[in-house]
Amino acid sequence: MKPRPPTMREKKRYLLVRIDPPFPDPDPKELYFAVVESVTSLFGDAEAARMMPVVITCGSGYAMIRCIRGYEEKARTAIVTLTSVGERRIALHAVATSGTLLALRRKISMLSLISFEVVASLRFRDREYAARRYPCQKVDLHEKGIKSQELLFLTQDDLEES
Fold this sequence. Notes:
Blueprint: E1 12-20, H1 28-43, H2 45-51, E2 54-59, E3 62-68, H3 72-80, E4 84-85, E5 88-89, E6 91-98, H4 101-110, E7 117-124, E8 127-134, E9 138-143, H5 156-161
């Protein structure tokens, strides 16, 4: 069977999505299932089948997601409503939309890649933490020596005690 000529193929759009928190990167397969579940719960099975969302790549704090042209706004809406991948709580933020992967790769190189600097090592409530500062004035505390992360919310009173 001959392949369809390019003029008869369905056009695709690619979404560049920023993952927060950026480390560790989610598993691409788990992210795919989470995106499909989000699209299905928001728009239903028939619309999800028409949209055909697919996770192309996932890494370094970004993911690329493909959908059919005309459904990119619905895909953005569904992606933004996603709150967790597997057991990990994350937030996805749509950064850019393009018709080619090459344009999105250029966009990633133009954006400042997620980089952090370890600001300090500190002790809080008898635990050792490493403070990481990201661009946009965000600071995360990561407990040293464990693999699972615990949510830590600091108030002004906590900062004054230390």
